[in-house]
User: Which sequence fits this backbone?
DNA sequence: CGCTTAGTTGAGTTCGTTCAACGACTGTGG
DNA sequence: CCACAGTCGTTGAACGAACTCAACTAAGCG
């Protein structure tokens, strides 16, 4: 279990951020970009499987994901693990730790991940000097809350088959918006991750995924889940999909 | 199903807010109080069982709970309901709708509830003029996220007995901090609510609660759950409890 | 007094679990 | 280059948790 995280002092200026041109994100003023650029302290690269943040830690940093896939999770004493949500480019991580002291969940990289590092001490000055960015951070927190609401509904009230369909459709939609697929719609995830997200055992998860595959909705391939029919998955889950909306990020 | 909500133009000044003296909340400066008082537009009273906010609505308001118990929930097409969290004094409701347009969950009163009404249009001016209060709103959103994380862990990975113990211990701790109990530790909730929170059927919920009662952890009484041993519940759930920390509210 | 809501209990069924074993693939060291 | 261990996915069988169906009690209310 690699925990080390190579720190690069390498720093792409925010004005040239590869994320900003994506139609999924809102546009930023010169003024905002300039401030964020000063707020940014450096970059960090994590290998697949590396732990980015640990439950219980008092992180001095706040991160924005630049590229790659990861996930947030919590564990019980005896090792039972629950994946709470997935993190993708544009997502802010470590906000809880920054605002309230201690992290209460861990974050792990699913693929190689690169992150922007921000200084937690400067967050208050962002609130004072750039209300629009402060509002954005609240927006991001409220959005995360929405997603957690939907996950809760899913785990609590959907059947195993619906749950699996929902999760994969969800990851697929997010990945599409962020332009994360090149040709093949491959989500870099193992069945163990799916099981730990859905609150199912790995055996039953496997059998459930086989049912989705039998209906030609997905195909399991080389360390990942290939989505064949995103709409079919949404229909199976009874899920409306994500809202079409420009979102902010820091 | 009562949906009407009697609107009072009655308005307690924030400086005399009954919540502010509670040790659970942080202190506020004169300046902050003055601003919040102007931000407040009125009060609203909801009967037990009344719907305060509806999924899909574009609410023009933001509320802070002044007194009473309520809950947030989402429903699937076919009527399956998932309770996401409970709302209690000091909680902000309608933030999602305010920031992102449309509410994606409903809120219902569990007991008679009174609320402060805020104008959604003035939220931006709060961000511009009072960074500390803006930070507080982010704090509240991040706190809600934490609670949802814990609920997700609970539903996904705890057994039925652990889940039930966790939920009741959670409601009990929150109620205690807010001084909501007078003598008897009675949580105003039905077994149907518990079932819809835990993602269980009502029959199995009943049998699970009986087990907790058999261990003298709770007792079911006149329209509610009486807590006999909060520590025992936490232990049974393997839950650490809420952090001891002053929290903000608006 | 009947009607409704909330809680209780038993019986039978379904869904999901654990246990166990095995195949395919990857990376590593001798 | 092969042997070996480790991870990931797959499958069958037996068990257990949670569900549905159904019937019944008790309390509250018009």
Assistant:
């Amino acid at each position: 279990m690699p925990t080390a995280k190579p720190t690069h002092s390498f720093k792409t200026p925010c004005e040239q951020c590869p994320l900003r041109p994506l139609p999924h994100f809102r546009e930023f003023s010169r003024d905002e970009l300039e401030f964020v650029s000063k707020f940014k302290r450096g970059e960090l690269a994590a290998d697949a499987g590396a732990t980015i943040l640990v439950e219980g830690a008092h992180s001095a940093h706040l991160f924005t994901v630049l590229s790659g896939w990861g996930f947030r999770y919590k564990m019980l004493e005896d090792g039972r693990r629950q994946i709470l949500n997935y993190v993708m480019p544009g997502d802010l991580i470590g906000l809880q730790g920054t605002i309230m002291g201690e992290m209460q969940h861990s974050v792990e990289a699913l693929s190689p991940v690169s992150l922007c590092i921000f200084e937690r001490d400067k967050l208050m000055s962002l609130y004072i000097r750039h209300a629009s960015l402060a509002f954005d951070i609240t927006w991001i927190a409220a959005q995360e809350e929405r997603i957690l609401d939907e996950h809760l509904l899913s785990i609590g009230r959907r059947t195993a088959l619906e749950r699996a369909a929902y999760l994969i459709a969800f990851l697929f939609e997010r990945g599409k918006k962020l332009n994360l697929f090149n040709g093949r719609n491959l989500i870099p995830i193992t069945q163990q991750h799916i099981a730990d997200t859905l609150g199912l055992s790995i055996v039953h998860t496997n059998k459930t995924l086989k049912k989705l595959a039998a209906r030609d909705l997905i195909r399991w391939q080389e360390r990942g889940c290939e989505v064949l029919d995103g709409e079919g998955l949404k229909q199976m889950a009874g899920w409306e999909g994500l809202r079409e909306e420009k979102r902010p990020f820091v």
Notes: Residues 159-160, 200-201, 203-204, 207, 222 of chain B lie near DNA strand D (CB under 10 Å from a C1'). Chain B has two domains: 5-133, 150-237. The longest helix of chain B spans residues 131-157.
